[in-house]
Amino acid sequence: MNSSNLTEKVNVMSKEIPDSVHYIFGVVYMLLNVVATTGNVVVLYVFFRSKKLHSAIYFMISALCLGDLLMSSVGLTILSIASFATYWVLGDWGCIAYGTLMTFLGLMQITLLTVIAVTRYIFVVHNNNIGPCSAKVITLLCTLYALGFSVAPLLGWSKFVLEPIGTSCGPNWVGIEWSDVSFNMTLFFLCFLAPLSFILFSYIMIFWKIKKKRIQKKNETYEIHVSTTILFMIVAFLGSWTPYAFMALYIVITKNNQIHPLLAALPLVFAKCAPIWNPYIYFMRDTKFNHECRKMLPILSRLGLWRVNPGSSQADHVMHLNDTLSRKTSTYV
Questions:
Q1: CB 3.0 to 4.6 Å from 108: which of 146, 163, 189, 239, for a disulfide?
Q2: In what residue span(s) does the G-protein coupled receptors family 1 profile domain sit (predicted)?
Q3: Torsion angle of C-alpha atoms 187, 39, 118, 217, degrees rounded to 10
Q4: 7-64 residue pLDDT tens
């Protein structure tokens, strides 16, 4: 199926969605944009203003939030405009550019989440730390890894096309050519399943280590705090990306491109929620960030936002990372 036929088919299928539904999606994208952009802007502002937060782990988290900010401010804005127009408004080149950018940011997010999970595992289980230089190198490698897969369609390995909803662009999941199928399967296994496996392994080992070392009552508060934080991260990750990933895998395996556009749009909406979670999960439970946030943005304290979790002190003490071997400086969960 060539690209012109595919585009025509998508346009026909997208007309099955009432304009009112497109408008609802547009409003949803706008709300997600406001929440995600606000959270990530606050996080990045506090991070760059506070010298106390210039450590290895915060550097990686700031890179994660920067990607989330771009995904929300650029990606969700374009989606909102297209949804209110009820069709893709940026043309073929805009579709390619959007697909490339969103794929890059999505892969960057997943890769950085994996690295953060692995570094947490290394610290908790093996009591080893990474320094600022290592964090920068790791972030650069994550960027190159995500960039390599996101630009592959520009070099002839598959292509970016309109998605069934007709207001967004992404990988050609419905393509039946070998280049499309191989690219899609590679994305699923190397850019979703493999990172997910590393994340689950890291968190399982962390739970095992915590359970093994729980010999004092005060550790119960620590275990609850860490367990809850990790649960939030896992649920957010799976909730955002799994529906989209498995819908894509289903289409690739079954060659079923007759899925109703509205049904295909729901996993897309879940995936677009991804930029929301990280600033609120990683930082609302971080006492060090809370302190810096209240100091630089006191209005948030008056509004009741970014409060310190009373049960997190022991967790913060144990999970602090440092940039040297002699001093712990950054809260990890």
A1: 146
A2: 39-282
A3: -140
A4: 555 554 556 788 999 999 999 999 999 999 999 998 899 888 887 778 887 888 899 8
Among candidate residues 320, 307, 290, the one with its CA nearest the CA of residue 226: 320
Phi, psi of 285 (to 5 degrees): -105, 15
CA distances from 213 to 116, 117, 125, 326 (A): 22, 20, 10, 22
Of residues 17, 122, 108, the one with CA closest to residue 66: 108
Tokens 């890179």, located at residue:
63
The pLDDT of residue 326 is 32
- Percent of the chain having pLDDT more than 70? 77
- Of 63-77, 107-121, 233-247, which one has max mean pLDDT? 63-77
d(CA 333, CA 325): 19
Break the chain into its structural domains and give their ranges. 18-319
Give the pair of three-digit tokens for residue 202. Answer: 């890291």
pLDDT digits (tens, 9 = 90+) for 125-153: 888 888 889 999 999 999 999 999 999 99
Question: What pLDDT is recorded for position 310?
Answer: 46
> What pairing do the DSSP bridges indicate for beta strands 160-162 and 169-171?
antiparallel
Of 1.20.1250.20, 3.90.550.10, 3.40.630.30, 1.20.1070.10, the CATH number of 18-319 is: 1.20.1070.10
Do 291 and 298 meet the contact criterion of CB atoms below 8 Å apart?
no
The whole-angstrom separation of Cα 171 and Cα 251 is 12
